[in-house]
């Protein structure tokens, strides 16, 4: 839990090394998914007024699907269509690093 909290603080500070660390840490996938779920639940809670309580569930599911699709599109464009000679990445690395960006936005707001 302390590592997770430390990563939240480092994301808020825009620590560049955090992205490299999370990219290499294959065990961080559960933390990455937790960040996406928590931030989408928070967004769903914010939409309880107009949508009702179903918004929390729908928001969480939609956010998880969008996170996965966005990481795949990023992977496809960056690794398959427009790679640099040194480009080496997989879908899991992008899922983890994109969640750090989401963690940063959640920490700010």
If you had to describe this structure to a student in words, what would you say it looks like?
- The chain crosses the membrane at residues 32-51, 57-78.
- The protein has 109 residues and is mainly alpha-helical.
- The chain has one domain (2-108).
- The chain has six helices and no strands.
- Helix 3 (29-46) packs across helix 5 and helix 5 crosses helix 6.
Mind sketching the topology for me?
Layout: H1 2-12, H2 16-24, H3 29-46, H4 48-51, H5 54-81, H6 91-108
Helix pairs in contact: 1-6, 2-6, 3-5, 3-6, 5-6
Quick recap of the structure?
The chain crosses the membrane at residues 32-51, 57-78. By secondary structure, this protein is mainly alpha-helical.
Main sheet specs: none
What fraction of the residues are assigned to beta strands by DSSP? under 5%
Radius of gyration, whole Å: 15 Å
Share of helical residues? over 70%
Give me the oligomer status: single chain
Order of SSEs: HHHHHH
Derived from helix and strand composition plus strand pairing, the structural class reads mainly alpha
The dominant shape is: globular
Distance between the termini: 21 Å
* E-strand count: 0
**Uncertain ranges:** none
Q: What number is the mean pLDDT?
A: 82
Number of distinct helices: 6
Question: How many structural domains in the coordinates?
Answer: 1
């Amino acid at each position: 839990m302390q590592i997770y909290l430390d990563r939240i603080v480092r994301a808020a500070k825009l620590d560049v090394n955090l992205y490299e660390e999370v990219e290499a840490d294959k065990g961080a996938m559960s933390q990455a998914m937790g960040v996406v779920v928590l931030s989408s639940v928070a967004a769903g809670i914010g939409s309880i007024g107009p949508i009702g309580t179903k918004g929390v569930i729908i928001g969480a599911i939609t956010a998880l699907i969008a996170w996965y699709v966005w990481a795949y599109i990023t992977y496809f464009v960056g690794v398959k269509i427009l790679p640099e000679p040194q480009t080496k990445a997989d879908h899991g690395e992008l899922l983890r690093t994109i969640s750090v960006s989401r963690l940063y936005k959640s920490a700010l707001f």
